[in-house]
Amino acid sequence: MHETTALLIELGAIILGLGILGRLAGRVGFSAIPLYLLAGLAFGHGGLLPLNASEEFVATGAEIGVILLLLLLGLEYSASELVSNLKTQYPSGIVDFVLNAVPGAAAALILGWGPVAAVALAGVTWISSSGVIAKVLGDLGRLGNRETPVILGVLVIEDLAMAVYLPLLTALLAGLSLAGGSLTLLISLGTVGAVLYLALRHGRLISRAVSSDNPEMLLLVVLGLTVLVAGVAQELQVSAAVGAFLVGIALSGEVAEGAHNLLAPLRDLFAAVFFVFFGLNTDPAAIPPVLVPALILATITTLTKIGTGWYAAKRAGVRTAGRWRTGGTLVARGEFSIVIAGLAVGVEPRIGPLATAYVLILVILGPLAARWTEPLARRLTRRPAPAAPAPAAAAAVPVSPEAGVAPPVAKPPVAEPPATEANDAAPSRP
C-alpha cells in the first residue's frame, strides 16, 4: 500500500474512533480522556495493531494539541489577573513543590538510582498536567467556578517553574559546568520575563494588531502567532506550553473572545490526538514490572496533590466543596512528566517505564478524581443530623380545687435543620 494511502486510512480511523469514544463518554457523563489513552495503548508499540504510517503526523498533532489547550486556557484570564494570582499563590507553589517533589526524589534514592535520577523523578511527580486539567475543566463546565483561578494559579507557577527546572536538569544530565548551566537558566528566565512584560505593558497593542473582523484572518493570525511563539520559547529552553499560555494572556477583549470561539473545535481535535499519542508511545509490556512501585507512588502523590489543592483554595477563601474540587482536579500528571522522564532515560533507563506507568495511572485517575473527590469527601465527612429529643412524659399534677386547672407543660425543643453549603460556582468570565 502506498505510504500516503496508509497515512490517510490510519488518520481517518483514528479521528473516527475518537469521535465514537467521545460520544460514548458523553452519554455516560464521563470524561473521554481515559478512553483516548487506552485506545492509544491498544494501537501503539506492542499493542494489538500498531499504527506506523501516521506516527510522525500524530506526534506533530499532539504538540499542537498541548499548545492549543494552553492558549485557550490563557485566553480566559488577563495579564493583570495572572500577576495578581502569582502574588497570592506563591506560598501554595512552595507547598506544592515540597509535598509532591519530595516523594519522587525519595523513591529514586530508595531504589538506588542516584541524586541526578532523584532530581528527575522529583519533577515527574511534582508537575501536574496542564493539558489534561484544561480539558477536564472544560468537560466538567468548571471554568467559571470560584476555585478555577486557584487551580490555574498553581498550574502557572508549576509551568513557570519549568523554565528554571528543565535547564537545570538538562545541565545535570549533560554534566555541564556551573557556567554553562547558569547561562541556559538566564536565557530561559529572560524569555519568560520578556513575554510577561509585553503582555502586561503592551497587551492592548498586541490585541489591536491581531484584531480583525474577518474570522479567517483572525484565526490565521492568532494560530500562527501562537505556534511561532511556542516554537521560539522551546528553542530558548522554555516550555512551548508556557509560550502558548502567555500569548493567550496577552490577548484580551473581543479578540480573546473571537479567537476562543474559532479555536475551540481545533483544540478539541488536537487535544484528543495528544492523549492518543501518549498512549501510542507506551509499550504495554514495560508496565507490569514497575506497576507496584508506580501504584505506591501514585497513591502517595494523589493524596499530596489533594492536600496542595485544599491548602491553596483555603488561602483564597474558597469554601469546603471548592477546596476538595481543587485538590481532585490537580491530581493528573501528563506531558511535562513524560518530557522529564525522556530526558533522564539516558542516565537511568529504569525511569522511563516507571514514569510511563505512573503517568498512565494518574492521567486515567485524574479526570475521575476531579469529578468524584468532592462528592466522596462530602459523603465521608457528613455529620448526621442531631435527633430530636423525645417528649417527656406528662407527670400527674394534682388539680387545685380552687383553680380547677393544671399548670401548663413546657413543649420540647425542636431541632434546627442542618445548614447547607452554598454553591461555590461563580458566573463564567465573558
Automatic annotation (TrEMBL):
GO terms for molecular function: antiporter activity. This is Potassium transporter. One of its GO terms (biological process) is proton transmembrane transport. It is a multi-pass membrane protein. One of its GO terms (cellular component) is membrane. The chain crosses the membrane at residues 6-26, 33-51, 57-78, 90-111, 117-138, 150-168, 174-197, 217-233, 239-256, 263-280, 286-306, 327-345, 351-373. It is found in: Membrane. Keywords: Membrane, Transmembrane, Transmembrane helix, Transport. Pfam families: Na_H_Exchanger. Residues 20-368 form the Cation/H+ exchanger transmembrane domain. Belongs to the monovalent cation:proton antiporter 2 (CPA2) transporter (TC 2.A.37) family. Residues 403-430 are annotated as: Disordered. Its main location: membrane.
